[in-house]
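Curious: explain these C-alpha cells?
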Amino acid sequence: LFYQPLLAFEGLTVVGFEGLIRWHHPSLGLISPMEFIPLAEKTGLIHRIGQWVLQRGATDWPELRRHCLRGCESEPFLSLNLSAPELAGADTVPGIQTCLEQHAMDPRELHIELTETTIIQNMDAVARSLHQLRRLGVGIALDDFGTGYAGLDYLQSLPFTCLKIDKTFVQQLNQSERSLHIIKAALELARSLGLSTIAEGIEDAHIAAQLAALG
C-alpha cells in the first residue's frame, strides 16, 4: 500500500492520505491495479484484497496521522478504495466497523472511495452499505469525476461527501478551455450539494494557484 498525501491549498498542509495498492510481483515487477483488480473482481479475491487494504491502512494510520495538520477545518483522514462488489457484500460494513474498533480509529477519519467508472450491478446493496457507513461517520468520495457515465446518477442516489475531480481535466487546465469550464461546473455542483472537493494530479504550481483561486 502506497500513500499519496492530500494537501490543502492554504499553506500546502497535509490534511490526509490516500492508500494506493500496488503488486510487487517476483518476476514481473510492479503491477498496476488496473491490471489485477478487474481480475480479482472476477475471481472473488477482491474481498480478501479489500480486507487486507483496510487492515493495513488502519494499522499505518497512527503514524500517518502524525504528519497531518491539527486544527484544520476537517479532521485528518485516510482515504481507501473499495470496489462495488465489495460494497455489495453483507459483511463489508460490519467488517469495517470491527476494524475501526480494533485499531481505535475514529470513523470520521476514514473515507471510502468509489470510482465513477464503476458499473454497479447491485445498486440497492451498495447504497445500503454506503448509507450504513455514513451513519457510522465514515466519509464517501466519488472518484474520477467527469470520466465516467454515471456520475450524476450516483450523486443523486448515493450519500457522497466528497467529489474528486479527475486528473484528465486538472492537467489540461492550461491547454483546454473546456477543461476549465468542466472544473468550474464540478466545483459549483459540489458546493451546491455541500460536498468537499479534491483535484487529482496537480504537478504544477501555476495549476495549483488557478485551482485555489477557483475555490
Notes: The radius of gyration is 17 Å. The chain has a mean pLDDT of 90. The beta strands are 2-8, 13-20, 23-25, 29-31, 77-81, 110-115, 139-145, 162-165, 196-199. DSSP finds nine helices and nine strands in the chain.
